[in-house]
Amino acid sequence: MNNPMNNDNVNTVPDAPHGEDVANADDAATRSETGEPIIRFEKVVKKFGDVTVLDELDFEVRKGEKVTIIGPSGSGKSTVLRILMTLENINDGVIYVTGRPLWHEEKNGELVPASEEHLREMRKEMGMVFQQFNLFPHMTVRRNVTEAPVQVLKLSKDEANERADKYLELVGLSDQSDKFPSQLSGGQQQRVAIARALAMRPNIMLFDEPTSSLDPELVGEVLNVIQRLAEEHDLTMLLVTHEMQFAKQISDRVCFFDKGKIVEQGTPDEVLVNPQEPRTQEFLKSFIEQH
Ligand SMILES: Nc1ncnc2c1ncn2[C@@H]1O[C@H](COP(=O)(O)OP(=O)(O)OP(=O)(O)O)[C@@H](O)[C@H]1O
Ligand SMILES: [Mg+2]
Q: For atom 26 of ligand 1, which residue has the closest CA?
């Protein structure tokens, strides 16, 4: 395996925290059909006021699967990720992550709304990378990466620094650790954001249009890091993107969302090359015309 971290930290992403095996792209073909679900939405409803944003959504992601969500603006793509990251609550339905209800807890055989403690625990399963990076502007790059491991995971400063070194190396920013976000390019900032998410050693990585606010010449460096993560680590990845070529390369499955529902899903070839649903065909046609 051609891993950029060719020493004992090779296993930092895939091994932690639940001892997953290192996988490679050869597994991708079977992953969609055979892996166990690590995320399951069951009839999930999300409303903002009177507007139903997710409409009894059923959705599953299997362990290690790389799933891309595409769809028009307002179709609910970010909402799916934000709900998983526990940034938005749901109105109805149940979501399971690693077999445990995310927004509920089981009490006396019944599902009741989750406590803050349960949500904090579940949040550790996931790391999220946002379109706008969302780095802490007053902290150095290193501190951005060590902050949550120290505060949330209670790692010692030394342990957290060791992790920061590993993940900053993974994203190619070892030499930038003492800088502040404002001193970095957008592509570098986004790579810090990826390192920061990985430093919590999540099982699931959520990417919400990670390259949409980058200058075109900086998109490639961020996509390269994500692609390497996808190929070399058995992370489960859920990615919202408009980079169709990239989606085609890294996804086991592509889901086309419209109006809070999955209209069509399948392999990248099925959805992006030979879409069956008129709505998907229209979306891709107008997308190609605009780009
Ligand atoms: N906090 C909020 N309050 C009210 N409405 C919201 C909120 N967040 C999202 N919405 C609405 O929910 C719908 C879905 O939003 P969401 O951000 O999930 O769409 P999206 O598919 O990610 O779109 P885009 O491609 O523009 O990012 C939109 O109509 C949006 O205006
Ligand atoms: Mg969005």
A: 73
Q: How many CA within 13 A on the CB side of residue 159?
A: 10
Helix (H) or strand (E) holding 67: strand 66-70
Tell me the best of 44, 46, 47, 48 to mutate to test the pocket of ligand 1, counting ligand atoms within 8 Å of each CB and taking the most. Answer: 48
Find the 131 Cα to ligand 2 centroid distance in Å. Answer: 9
Does 9 sit in the ligand 1 pocket, CB within 6 Å?
A: no
| 234-259 per-position pLDDT tens digit | 899 999 999 999 999 999 999 999 99
Does the pTM surpass 0.85? The reply is: yes
**CA dist 218 to 188, 214, 225, Å?**
9, 6, 12
99 backbone φψ class: left, alpha, beta (φ>0; ψ -120 to 50): left
For ligand 1, is residue 230 a contact (CB within 6 Å)? no
Rg (C-alpha) for the chain, rounded Å, is: 19
Work out the average pLDDT over 69-76: 96
Ligand 1 closest atom vs CA 240: 22
Task: Summarize pLDDT for 174-193 with one digit per residue, the tens.
Answer: 999 999 999 999 999 999 99
Query: Which of 223, 220, 242 lies closest to 231 in space, CA to CA?
Result: 223
**Which residue's CA is the closest to the ligand 1 atom numbered 6?**
48
27 CB neighbour count, 10 Å cutoff: 15
Angle at 290 between CA 285 and CA 291, to 5 degrees: 100
Atom of ligand 1 nearest to the CA of 260: 14
> Which residues are 286's β-sheet partners?
none
15-39: per-residue pLDDT in tens? 333 333 333 444 444 444 556 799 9
Backbone angles phi, psi at 244, to 5 degrees: -65, -40
